[in-house]
Design brief:
This protein is of the alpha+beta class and about 425 residues long. It has 17 helices and 10 strands. A 4-stranded mixed β-sheet has the order 1-2-6-5. A 4-stranded antiparallel β-sheet has the order 8-7-9-10. A two-stranded antiparallel sheet has the order 3-4.
Length: about 425
């Protein structure tokens, strides 16, 4: 349930590999246990609220060793925009030096509803909290601290340009002060990484180093190939040539990969619906159709189950290729594999066998007799090439097309062999 919620509501988590998702969830639980969540103005705190706000914090700090934002101890959640008596203004979010974060739940949800609009209240306010953490005597992350001062130096020119409205990519609100500039950069960093990297590569690369993650590296768990122990000695050097080389090294080794292919994007966005539709078709249309094919094809019920098992197993193989993109748990996928994919595939195969015959045969069999069996009147035939399934199909044809058949001594059977090698009875003639 927790993984499903995160996959549905947090695209950052959805793109992680299963191993990285386990790390993410472990951190999330520890963060959730460490913070106090308080509902304001009648808002009831639910598991969803705690999980999604904690997930935003873990997303921001996923590349850091110390991810708890230790000075932050309480989070006030308001149902909507709230009034601050201290500032005498309506707000969506507010951080205090005392370690209290206040946030509008409606606006938090809107921040994740659109993945690439560069507006994310949760990341914005938690970026403020991470910034404040450096000013406190808490257990802040040393990696983040080591890079932050250098990032501020690098960012100053862009900040001043934004104040003078010379930068069009970043939101103007970032020009309020350096606190807001950092928070706005974080929003753009996660919601438009490719565009950020192209338009402000210098600023993006140092932000990537500081947070130790690259949101543009979707396929690689957002990892960066340059780490503090390699880059920091150059950052502390006064050599412009050393810094220029580092910048080039960052650009060359940032593990930039193309985003998902059309197939992967389709699976990610519509996979759950494709699985639901195919499962529905398999259960409510596929089963009656399969029964009809069984009644008209020379195959035993055991053969049907073997084919269904093989088709379902082929469906399970897909898990290896789509699990990163598909918003489903394995047990849900298993149901789709057998009831959806497997049932649709076996019916498709029977359709091929039925409508693409490869040969026709006419054979005359001696009738040994008729008897009552488990499925009504059954016929006993003498001759090679017949079986219980074959006799069942012959009897079905005779029963449906002849009123009197008890006196027959022989039967001429016209059968067709389909593309899969399975026979179908096309015509029977009785000989007295």
């Amino acid at each position: 349930m927790l993984n499903n919620l995160l996959k549905q509501k947090n695209p950052y988590f959805r793109n992680l590999t299963p191993d990285a998702q386990e790390i993410f969830v472990d951190r999330l639980f520890k963060f959730m246990e460490d913070k106090k969540f308080i509902g304001r103005e009648g808002l009831v705190i639910t598991d969803e609220i705690k999980v999604l706000i904690s997930a935003a914090a873990i997303q921001l700090t996923f590349g850091l060793k110390d991810y708890m934002i230790s000075h932050l101890h309480a989070i006030n959640i308001f149902p909507r925009i709230f009034f601050s008596k201290y500032l005498n203004v309506n707000l969506k979010g507010l951080n205090t030096q005392s370690g209290v974060l206040s946030i509008s739940w409606n606006d938090f949800k809107e921040g994740y509803a659109i993945e690439d609009d560069k507006l994310n209240l949760g990341l914005h306010e938690l970026a403020h909290a991470l910034y404040i953490d450096l000013d406190e005597d808490g257990n802040y992350d040393e990696h983040f601290s080591a890079y932050f001062e250098k990032w501020e130096d690098v960012a100053m020119k862009d900040y001043l340009d934004l104040k003078e409205k010379k930068v069009s990519f970043l939101r103007n609100y970032g020009g309020t002060n350096m606190h807001e500039f950092f928070a706005v950069c974080v929003e753009h960093f996660f919601e438009a990484p490719r565009e950020f990297k192209i338009k402000l590569p210098h600023l993006y690369n140092y932000l990537m180093l500081m947070l130790n993650q690259d949101p543009d590296n979707v396929k690689g768990d957002y990892k960066v190939r340059i780490y503090a122990e390699k880059a920091l000695p150059v950052l502390t050097s006064n050599s412009e040539e050393s810094e220029r080389k580092l910048n080039q090294q960052i650009i060359n080794s940032s593990h930039i990969e193309e985003r998902f292919s059309l197939f992967q994007t389709t699976i990610q966005r519509n996979g759950i619906y494709i699985a639901m539709i195919s499962t529905f078709l398999g259960l409510f249309a596929g089963i009656p159709l399969l029964i009809w094919f069984w009644s008209t094809t020379v195959i035993s019920i055991g053969g049907i189950f073997i084919m269904l098992f093989i088709c379902g197993a082929l469906g399970l193989i897909q898990w290896k290729y789509v699990r990163v993109y598909l918003d489903m748990e394995y047990h849900q996928f298993s149901m789709y594999a057998f009831s959806g994919f497997g049932m649709c595939l076996i019916n498709f195969l029977f359709c091929l066998n039925t409508f693409i015959p490869i040969k026709h045969d006419v054979i005359t069999y001696e009738i040994l007799g008729f008897e009552n069996g488990n499925q009504g009147v059954e016929i006993l035939l003498k001759g090679e090439g017949n079986s219980a399934s074959f006799e069942r199909n012959v009897m079905n044809y005779i029963y449906e097309n002849f009123k009197k058949f008890e006196d027959a001594e022989k039967v001429t059977v016209t059968k067709s062999t389909g593309l899969l090698g399975l026979d179908r009875i096309e015509k029977c003639e009785l000989i007295n």
